[in-house]
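Subgroup meeting minutes
Present: P.N., E.W., G.H.
Scribe: E.W.

1. P.N. recapped why we're keeping a running log of single-chain structure predictions: easier to compare across weeks, and new members can see raw inputs and outputs side by side.
2. G.H. added today's entry (216 aa).
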Amino acid sequence: MKLYGYWRSLATFRVRIALNLKGIAYDETIVDLHKGEQLQAAYRSINPQGVLPSLFDDGDGTPLFQSLAILEYLDETHPQPPLLPRAPRDRSRVRGLALIAAADAHPLVVPRVRNYLGKEFNVDEPARIAWGRHWLAQGCAALEANLAADPRTGRYCHGDSPTLADICLASHMAGAKLFDVDTSPYPTCERIRDACFALEAFAKAHPLKQPGAPKP
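Output recorded in log:
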């Protein structure tokens, strides 16, 4: 498979984790968000929205887009190990947890939103960082409240095997780290994050381990 992504793209990070968990080989082409390469015609011909990631499956010339849709595609085409539980209520819970991170918090901190705040409303960089921290912390609080109170939470978000929810939680917590958010008030999120990153599939997909990432 061919993945278009960038080290700092949390959505690409989610897809990398899933590919690793499924044992699917892929090549990644870098689309530099900081240079605006995602908005250039070459990439817009692949993804008209100009966002990351995009994924080409071998033998099919149509790109897949939007990280959660890609994750479910990978789960349907490569069912082992499963990213969603079998029972409908459990599947709904896992999807709901995933959406807190991927649909409620993450879209508010992406570069196009931060750049718009600066260009259209003259929001300076410190205020834009504070904006990002706020929404990432809100996401952590929502995840913590749901995870800590539910007996279905196990070693991971739902039981003792990683699911779609763990992929999204891991990317959310990595984003919180990039924005220097204090996550100590969310101990369940921290515990599950640590369990996830103990797995090679998560660890080697981490943004700071990708080409172009800043050195520690």
